[in-house]
Amino acid sequence: MTCKKIWAILAICIALSGCATPTSRLDDIAQSHHFQRSVVNTHGFAHLVYTNQFDQAKNVLHVYLEGDGSPWKYRVVTMPDPTPREPLALRLMAKDTAAAAYVGRPCYNGTAEDDGCNPTLWTSARYSVTVVRSMTAVIRKLIDQHGFNEVKLIGHSGGGALAVLIAPKLREVTHVVTIAGNLNTDAWTSHHGYSPLYTSLNPALQSDLPTRIKQWHLVGGRDQVVPPVLVTDYVRAQKSALGISIDGFSHGCCWESEWASIARAIGSSASGFLPGRRFKIPD
């Protein structure tokens, strides 16, 4: 093969890889699992929503909230598109047989250049009143349109923070489940030496969730992004929260391997999360 042909092939590969945006990869994952795609507009933002073709006769909805994605590059340069490159929450939803919806954030999933969007909404204001209000409205629309009377919020990483912040705003929420949840943003930014999230709400500084809302907070024993120690104080402060630390798991691994069992436990409102694998977060 001549050098000219080799360079031509490389050019094609580069061009094709450039077309594979984070949003298109998200769509590919959703399509592979036959999720239905829609866009819900509220409070001036377009939110991407995937559903698992749920049966409208069901009355319980599992809502999956994704992590922060890629707000920064090299910790100092804001990314033009914060959409997660590895959407763990979407992959987890694929293992859930209950009625489920994946609700995207404002300015994520290909909408970063929409009117009203700016980098603060995926950096310092990623958990702001604006973001929480808009996402709450999307979930409210899903509840009203399909007649759900019970909602269980499931969030990974920063999605866990949003789950806690959204929960008291919807009377239908009965459970909050976080996976490696960022539940004390001040402690988290201090731990990593990041700039404080000045215009965000900190879940740890909000009023306790109502006791009617059961809380299960899962952490990985090897998590270096949100170490278990950063979650402990939040769990202890809540009256109806259970902290579960799983040895060998990290921020992204190995939640998919166990999620089918966990999702069934969520769906059945089981008091024990993982049979034979229930742990308290260590001191």
What secondary-structure arrangement, pairings included, does this model have?
Layout: H1 3-19, H2 22-32, E1 36-42, E2 45-51, E3 60-65, E4 72-73, E5 77-78, H3 88-93, E6 100-103, H4 129-146, E7 150-156, H5 158-166, E8 173-179, H6 185-192, E9 214-220, H7 229-237, E10 241-246, H8 255-268
Parallel strand pairs: 3-6, 3-7, 7-8, 8-9, 9-10
Antiparallel strand pairs: 1-2, 2-6, 4-5
Structure description:
By secondary structure, the chain is of the alpha/beta class. It is globular. It has eight helices and ten strands. It has an eight-stranded mixed sheet with strand order 1-2-6-3-7-8-9-10, sandwiched between helices. A two-stranded antiparallel sheet has the order 4-5.
